[in-house]
Description:
This protein has 305 residues and is an alpha/beta fold.
Amino acid sequence: MKKLLITLFIMSIFSGTNAQVETILLYPKGVPGSKGIQIPEDSQTSDGITLLKDITQPALFVYQPKNKTSDAAVIICPGGGYSVLAIDHEGYDIAAWFNERGVTAFVLKNRLPQDELFENAEIRPLQDAQQAFRIVRKNATKYGISPEKIGIMGFSAGGHLAATASTHFETQVGEILDTTVSVRPDFSLLIYPVITFNETVTHSGSRENLLGKTPTQEKIDLYSNDLHVMTNTPPTFLISTTDDFVSPENSILYFQACRKNNVPVEMHIYEKGGHGYALKKKGLGPVETWPARMEDWLRERKLMK
Length: 305
């Protein structure tokens, strides 16, 4: 496996904490589905938030805690409506939060569904998430984690990707197949997630960016993740607010599907908070306590000490 991984070590500072971050290319021998177009990655800052797009070389950023107290790990999927990745406040900052609590974190820089860059572009985000699970599980010993305690976390459209990974794991998508390694998350943390592509509830921008302006009903149903919850769907933690433009009905539908299938699930819906707050936005009221509720849930499940 070492020959398949290209790792770069960089010293970075996130959230005021020194951290050594390892970067793993998901496909060091060539990115599947690429049309071969070489363009620089686009990184812009808006309201203090870094937004990435034109990602042609997907990667995992590995954050290892200085004081590891858990053998669990989490793969983090930043949001951005499937048009950009909000990589810092829904990625790096969250990884630092886990590190401060002794948990190993991996930030996924997945490809976006850009038809101009990739063949069959809609499958590429999920393909990258599944490849991330293959890499992390194969290297569990290296990182001192249990291969049976690797979860996924997603924000907004990253929550849709995390929910897709949590409900479509029995089918490995794309050109890379390895049935010897499970791509099933062991737990799911879905924060103001897009869940359904039903037009009465969905976030239309996320749906359009992934599937186009006129998706078939078959595609809409395929990516409406509440319709694919099974008894072996991972235990799930959900956060939403009633004033979010991504309707809290998304979380409610997933919660109900989990309940129907006897999947352990916990949901918190706050009155106010809007969207995209993560750990960054302040002065929002009770919704700012959501990380403490998630920490309680992780401790209860013996995933954090």
